[in-house]
UniProtKB/TrEMBL annotation:
This is 6-phosphogluconate dehydrogenase. GO terms for molecular function: NADP binding; phosphogluconate dehydrogenase (decarboxylating) activity. The keyword Nucleus does not apply. It comes from Actinoplanes philippinensis. It holds the Pfam family NAD_binding_2. InterPro entries: 6-PGluconate_DH-like_C_sf, 6DGDH_YqeC, 6PGD_dom2, 6PGDH_C, 6PGDH_NADP-bd, NAD(P)-bd_dom_sf, Pgluconate_DH. Belongs to the 6-phosphogluconate dehydrogenase family. Signal peptide: none annotated. NCBIfam families: gnd_rel, PRK09599.1.
């Protein structure tokens, strides 16, 4: 099957290679023309036979919106645009409606797998109409891991990005649980080899996971994590998940707490904790550090 693929960075470039290894023809476009198969979006469209399928893997927000708008000018009725970036789910239905005016179909796909997806496959969560999902099934089958897991037609437009949003919210909580456990082990006078303990959990333990494997890998490379600063950014999905929990009145204690912990990581000296220290001193005469 033919596919146009826009954005050949860490994710998109690896996806191109995995698809080609499965026998698909991929025409890639990137602003870095050294890795691009086409010099422009118009040339990319010319190289694809109708009905075209073009998948975007570019940063969410204005870049995605601009790319899709530009694509709509060079594609034709019956073509399909797939957004595989981390767009907010509320963008998808309006986007699908605008494209439908031109007769262009739209799918939103949440993609998980990171830089390891080229080898292990990608988990795919798809939103959109069943006919277009079925048309693109050969591409999805090549990208997903072998076996029965790794793909879901999650629902209508927006469902793919909604599912990926919740996936990333869960990821926040899981990562922070491992991080807190690591810090407790590191602070304890009983534990003399923290990396060995983490490694012992990789098999036979109910907390085994790919994230744990990656923590073990990081500790192999830097046992004290000395090369890293305790700062963690967030790319939006955690915030959106908490927003949805509030909208739906769903208690999401772990995900919310892990998101706020990331905010705290950006403060060298927390004003809130200064206020806590001041209050403890005022009501209880507790010692403070100055």
């Amino acid at each position: 099957m033919q596919l146009g693929l826009i954005g050949l960075g860490r994710m998109g470039g690896n996806m191109r290679e995995r698809l080609r290894a499965a026998g698909h023809e991929v025409v890639g476009y990137d602003q870095n023309l050294e890795v691009s198969d086409a010099a422009s979006l118009a040339e990319l469209a010319e190289k694809l036979a109708a009905p075209r399928v073009v998948w975007t893997m570019v940063p969410s927000g204005k870049i995605t919106e601009d790319t899709i708008n530009q694509l709509a000018e060079v594609l034709e009725a019956g073509d399909i645009i797939i957004d595989g970036g981390n767009s907010k789910f509320t963008d998808d239905a309006p986007r699908a409606e605008r494209l439908a005016v031109k007769g262009i179909h739209y799918l939103d796909v949440g993609v998980s797998g990171g830089v390891w997806g080229i080898k292990n496959g990608y988990a795919l969560m798809v939103g959109g109409d069943a006919a277009q999902v079925e048309h693109c099934k050969p591409i999805f089958e090549a990208l997903k891991p072998a076996g029965e897991f790794g793909f879901a037609h999650a629902g209508t437009h927006g469902a793919g990005h909604y599912a990926k949003m919740v996936h990333n919210g869960i990821e926040y909580g899981l990562m922070h649980a491992y991080a807190e456990g690591y810090e407790i082990l590191k602070a304890s006078e009983y534990i003399h080899d923290v990396p060995a303990v983490i490694k012992s959990w990789r098999e036979g333990s109910v907390v085994k996971s790919w994230l744990l494997d990656l923590l073990d890998r990081a500790l192999d490379e830097d046992p004290e994590l000395e090369a890293l600063k305790g700062y963690a950014d967030d790319t939006g999905e955690g915030r959106w998940t908490v927003d949805e929990a509030v909208r739906l009145a769903v208690p999401a204690h772990v995900i919310a707490a892990s998101l706020f912990a990331r905010f705290q990581s950006r403060q060298d000296d927390s004003p809130a904790m200064k206020a806590v220290a001041a209050l403890r001193q005022q009501f209880g005469g507790h010692a403070v550090k100055r």
